[in-house]
Amino acid sequence: MKFSFAKPTLPKSGSVAVTVAAERSLGAVGQDLDQKTGGALSRAMAAGRFTGKKEETLTLLAPSGVELERVVLVGLGKPEEIDALALQAAGGTALAALDKAAEEASILVDLPDGAALTGAAAAAEVAFGAKLRSYKFDKYRTTDKAKKDQKPSLRKVTLLTDEADVAKKVFGTLDRVADAVFLTRDLVSEPPNVLNPATLADRCRALEEVGVEVEILDPKRLRKLGMGALLGVAQGSANEPRVVVMRYTGNPEAEDKRPVAFIGKGVTFDSGGISIKPAAGMEDMKWDMGGSAVVIGTLQALAARKAKVNAVGIVGLVENMPSGTAQRPGDIVTSASGQTIEVINTDAEGRLVLADCLWYAQDACNPRLMIDLATLTGAIIIALGGEHAGLFSNNDELANNLTAAGLKVGEPLWRLPMGDAYDKEINSDAADMKNVGSGRGAGSIIGAQFLKRFVNDVPWAHIDIAGVAWSKKDTATVPKGGTAFGVRLLDRFVAEFHEG
User: Fold this and answer.
1) Residue 158's domain is classified under what CATH number?
2) Is 172 within a domain?
3) Half-sphere exposure of residue 101, counting CA atoms within 13 Å on the CB side?
4) CA distance linking residue 413 with residue 362, whole number of Å
5) By C-alpha distance, which of 323, 236, 320 is closest to 272?
6) Where does the Cytosol aminopeptidase domain lie (predicted)?
């Protein structure tokens, strides 16, 4: 879908969305449209009980006095609450309302006095929200594509604003981030017969086009590195594992050249292994590689917008399958750190993958900090639902900065506790540690405690995205399916705390 910017002149035909603040407050151009239609907008708002609340919509078909096919009123909320997130939501809401209306449509960014963002910045944020909502993953659908009544027709959206040229420039950066979000959503949405460790590693090669150095570690190299924890997870599958190292050097002259490191769990399909999962819902386990997809998307975003930062992304890619060669409950594996792990539950495999990747990140990259992302535990869904990702950290400043970045982009984190009492739960009588605790309590915390044993003193954060990686319903800027939760968060985290 193409997005462009133009002066706020009402189109002579077609469809247009008009932003409306709370209490039915129309901006100057919106008031002009209301007059041209003989007050049709005002009457429709009153009759339809439309007040301009955030994400509220009202559609007028073929209003008199103008040649427009439809006018969609989109609520912004109270003027003092109109920030970047509200504007993105308005853009996404408008896009959804206009999607089947025509091939081209316009969005009039008409803001009231008192809005936190105005002009070019506001128009760019509306366009950003509209683009985020425009995402579709339908490459495998054939019959529905032939049904015109089900096929969206919108191809071009024009944002109407007084500062069109500046808005276009501001949107350029946001557009690159949106492309990275789309890449992540694409990867998470792919079926596991298409996306396996080798093919996902190959897709990482595309990042070379934006200046990312990509190194793929094959099984022979992984064995040489002693990654017994990761290899143990992979040994039941016919698809061999990979670890991909992605390096972006955006600030070679930095006084501190140590990179920010992002580490992602990439289980391309998780059957649970010998500790096999129930059949119901197992198809969702194609997105157990969501953490790796976020890391890949983040590196894409940073490189595409030429962020002044040195960053490395490391993703451990495996498939967890039951077979005659699969890892068994009771096996003891030796991790890259030299620590031994008693495998009690083969479905607690993501932490085994991350353990070796976290150790490799420290050994090979000397990072200033490490952030890992993983669909690690079902327990985090019980604790936080689909509204927040779980955050664990050994560093308060890092945790606070990540939380702040998440709030600004609408990807909120909730920090959970860690401590010695939890850590003792993974002590093993047979090895240095076991991969699960003795009971069902505090499952997400136990997983984080396990990872912490491979971190040493490096500032580290673990983000459990199991509850937020996939959405079962549409929201203003996230269509049902893969969310790419974490890409915008990490991009903002870097922009505010680690660039320059």
Assistant:
1) 3.40.220.10
2) no
3) 25
4) 25
5) 320
6) 345-352
What is the span of the domain harbouring residue 11?
2-167
Task: Sort 256 into a burial class: Cβ within 10 Å, 0-12 / 13-18 / 19+.
Answer: exposed
Each residue's pLDDT tens digit, 228-238: 999 999 999 99
User: Can you say which residues are annotated as belonging to the binding site for Mn(2+)?
Assistant: 265, 270, 288, 347, 349
Kindly state whether residue 173 falls inside one of the protein's structural domains.
no
Whether residues 182 and 155 fall in one domain: no
- The answer to whether residue 472 is catalytic is no
Residues 399, 288, single domain; the answer is yes
Rg (CA), the chain: 24
- Of the residues 36, 277, 308, 368, which is catalytic? 277
Query: What's the full length of the chain, in residues?
Result: 500
Residues 208, 132, single domain; the answer is no
- Name the catalytic one among 54, 247, 351, 434: 351
pTM of the model: 0.97
Same domain as 365, residue 265:
yes
How do residues 98-126 score in pLDDT, each as one tens digit?
Answer: 987 778 999 999 888 888 888 899 999 99
351: annotated active-site residue: yes
